[in-house]
Amino acid sequence: MAENRPLYLGPRLRRLRRELGLTQQAMADDLEISPSYVALLERNQRPVTADMLLRLARTYRLDIADLAGDDGEEYTRRLTDVLRDPIFADIDLPALEVADIAMSFPGVSEALLRLHGAYTREQQALAEQRAAGPGSEAGDPVREAQAFLASHRNYFHALDQRAEELAGEIDQKGGAEKWLGAKGVRVRFLPPDVLMDSLRRFDRHNQQLLIADTLDAASRDFQIATHIAHTAMRTEIKQTLREQTFSSRATAALLLRALAGYCAAAIRMPYARFARAAEQRRYDIDALCSLFGASFEQVAHRLTTLQRPGEERVGFFFIRLDEAGNVSKRLDGAGFPFAAHGGGCPLWSVHQVFRQPGEIATQWLELPGGERFFSIARTVRGGGRGYGKPSVLRAVALACAAEEAGRLVYAGDVDFDHAPTTPIGVTCRLCHRSACTARAVPPIGRDVLADDYLRTAQPYAFAES
């Protein structure tokens, strides 16, 4: 005979509420119970009755089997596995104590599991970094995701085609909000504090897409398009991700978000129309912003994707960094040699535009191998959606091959063969220009000479071989 035990779902209930973006008061209203009872359920101080289980399943359209799973047993199993780690070998950890912690203190269990997970990932990343050597993306989800995007030159044909079809459907309906309305989804704009400081949240129970009302028009439209991508194009995005096996779930999660953003941009700026406008306006980003109701950064992103077979346009490399030089985004739509390391040379104007916020800086660049490029850089601001709200100033840059610069309004009539170029390196460790006064560290493979009797203007002097 099966043992009848009380069912405690505290952590799972709390997780569900947060995923739905609900306060305890809102959940209590949905379930027709008191907020204090919700709090007791979440703290495992009250078991979940059969009636309450049915209410949860019916109200939030959930599967009872998934909802009623035993978190305590799952935590016990996971904690037991973690505590087998040799680092705990000299500690007496009776199975009953482990089970007691898992059943009675699910919050503490989750904290321990997260700590051990972080420790394990760091250990693995360090080991793989030493084994693989510099430049390997092994163990780094961000670099692995960047490598996947770069391998496709930041163009995904199936996604772009489907997004173009969706854009046509949306135009026929009179806009994204009306298109969603026809699907039974209402779009509402609410203050950030009501949304618990999120920019976008989908209320599945009430079929409402909630958007922060402090966003500008371009950001609002992009968030709506992102929701459409996550729902109407989910199958196509998942299929694209199945083409390759990734080393971690984190990589897949990052790429899911990146590809949803890609699809949102493709919906807002359909390929054929955008590519035609880009050529007609000579890649004038501000003009394209006005035509498509998009931001400078959104248009810059989209310009990196114009690689449709037979309809290719100028190939761009995109980078975004902060004032400390930390690279937060890198998109390679042209296979440039500095895609893996770009952003490290202080001679590139992308590091200097912080002195003149909002102004576009152009620059002709030459890498140590002789490759030449044309760069457009400007600052963009994120956050700060209201007085006193923190904001961050970043720099973004687009670079194209020098021979294609004549198609850009920014290059004017300058002949790229005679344009004054700035010599830059992909990173100091890989740049062997000995005359660079901006060098931070010596390059790999060069011996530094002693300077007892000679001090040059450059930070280091190198042996000839």
UniProtKB/TrEMBL annotation:
Q: Name one GO cellular component term.
A: cytosol
| Gene3D superfamilies recorded | lambda repressor-like DNA-binding domains
Q: One Pfam family this chain carries?
A: ScfRs
- Any GO molecular function: DNA-binding transcription factor activity
What's the superkingdom here? Bacteria
Q: Which family does it belong to?
A: Belongs to the short-chain fatty acyl-CoA assimilation regulator (ScfR) family.
Can you name this protein? XRE family transcriptional regulator
**The species this protein was found in:** Novosphingobium malaysiense
